[in-house]
Every structure is written in structure tokens, then in C-alpha cells.
Here is the input.
Amino acid sequence: MFILHKFTMKTLFVKNINFSISDEEIQILFSVFGDIISFKRPIDKRTKLKQGYCFIEMEDNQAEHAIKALNSIELGGRIITVELSNKSKKAESNSETTPISPSEALPHLKSSKRQMNKNPKPKNNSNNTTKS
Here is the structure.
């Protein structure tokens, strides 16, 4: 009999990385806490150098351990920051909310309807002159 586990992933945002630190060094540091599902470190288009930040995707509990252990440590002469990426923060907050109606999900449609009601076509005032 097999037991299936549902693993959730979290994306970590690591910033203030020294430019001399290689991708491999970062991956080795984070692999201590578990398997790295994906790793992305963008390259600056202008300078063609690696950026001072990266995104690391790991399993939920492993990511939490990595954040606790590695946030605010010194790496290559800089204090790095390790936190959940906005993508993971949004996913986390969406999982805790109740379902919403389509009109709540698309507030821009509601506001444009309200705006149309507030701004009806201007009346032609040229015919509304009083006669003496």
C-alpha cells in the first residue's frame, strides 16, 4: 500500500547576495535544508552580471527551516535576507480565505459600472432657458 503525501511548495526570495557568490554556492547552502525544486538568479541585461537576488523553490516545511536558519546570516561579506516571495505570500493568503463571488473577484467591473452611473450623459442646457 502506498501513502500519497501532498507537498506544497514555497518560493523563497533571497536578497543582498554578493555578486562574487556563485549559484552553486547558494544552492549548496540551501540544499542543507532539503531539495531545491527550482533556482532562478536573473542576469542584469545591461551589465550581463548575475543579480544580487534569487528565487529558490522548496517544499513547504523545508523552506520554513531555511528561512529561520539563513535569514540575516553573513554570506560573502553581506548580510542576506531570506523571506517568502510575494508569490508564496499570495498563495498562502488565498488558501486561508473563503470563496468569493465573481463580482468580488473582478472589482474593476463593479467600479466601472458605478462610474457610469455617477457620470450620466450631460443634458443639453441650451433648450432650458427661461422665457420672460
